[in-house]
Amino acid sequence: FGAGAAVAALASGAGFAGVGNGNTGGATKDQIVQWFTRLSANKEGVLFENTLVQIGLKTQYQGTKGRLQLFVGNKSAGALTDFAVDVSWIHGLSGVCSASSGVIEPRQQMQLTVTADCLKPFCGSPALTVSFMSPDGPTKMDLHLPIVAGKFLEQHTVSKADFDASWGRCIHQGSPVTVPSTDKWMKDETLRALLSNGIHLGLVEGEVAVAHGAANFKGEHQEALVYAKVAADKGSKAVKIAVASDNSDLKSALEDQLKMLLAKK
């Protein structure tokens, strides 16, 4: 990383600009973005919550396959009727969502299953529209499923020399970006844990100030390698991010995810 790294004031990745837009069902855009961001690196958590419903999510990924369980709880004293969900799949992904029973009784829960197939590198995430009728009237929520390219990465362990050589051969490197961050990400071990456990990058050993990680993206029709460098700039409380790959979509997707996770909210 050089001193001339570009500064990105963006609080979230450009590929996820639609998250939190549209009908938010009473939650704030910031809340929706925060829930989505956490789930982009975690296996389970809250996807959405307001005074009427809570939507929890549990996920499993293996190779090119993803399985997501949606738990929709009715928090209100009245039944939610005409309950429906619709997933808008994006280029590079396909999948199906189980059918809704249409009614969630008071204080009860509905479980839905979404299965996803990764075909090739992609940017962004599938839109999820949730609609129902409550005693207060019709409700529609425009959400996103946290199915991101980082979910289909498998750790690729290389030496520092091989990492540097592979990085230099990548077609798409771009300019490093710097995002204002928080105290949490000023610890080198925390950054390395995010790369290894949250995004499943294989860490290059021996690096202290800069975390290096590599992974193999698994798609049914196309695979690709991706490399990342992440370093804390404690003086300015910022994080420097650089990503390289031979696939431009994969490079952009991982860079956007890292910016969204590490930027100060």
Describe this entry's structure for a reader.
There is one protein chain. The N terminus is likely disordered. The chain contains 4 helices and 15 strands. The strands form 3 sheets. Strands 1, 10, 11, 12, 13, 14 and 15 form a 7-stranded mixed sheet that branches. The chain has a 5-stranded antiparallel sheet with strand order 2-3-4-7-6. Helix content is 18%, strand content 38%.
> Biggest β-sheet, characterized?
7 strands, mixed
Using the alpha-carbon principal axes, give the shape: elongated
- Number of beta strands: 15
Q: Helical residue percent?
A: 10-25%
Structural class determined from secondary elements: alpha+beta
The span between the termini is 24 Å
Question: How do the helices and strands follow one another from N- to C-terminus?
Answer: EHEEEEEEEEEHEHEEEEH
Q: Give the mean pLDDT.
A: 90
Concise synopsis of the structure shown:
The chain has 265 residues and is α+β, with helices and mostly antiparallel strands.
Which key features would you list for this structure?
265 residues, alpha+beta, seven-stranded mixed β-sheet, five-stranded antiparallel β-sheet, 4 helices, elongated, disordered N terminus
Topology:
Blueprint: E1 6-7, H1 29-41, E2 44-49, E3 53-62, E4 65-74, E5 81-88, E6 93-97, E7 109-118, E8 127-134, E9 137-144, E10 153-155, H2 160-169, E11 177-180, H3 188-198, E12 202-203, E13 210-217, E14 224-233, E15 238-245, H4 248-262
Parallel strand pairs: 1-11
Antiparallel strand pairs: 2-3, 3-4, 4-7, 5-8, 6-7, 8-9, 10-13, 11-15, 12-13, 13-14, 14-15
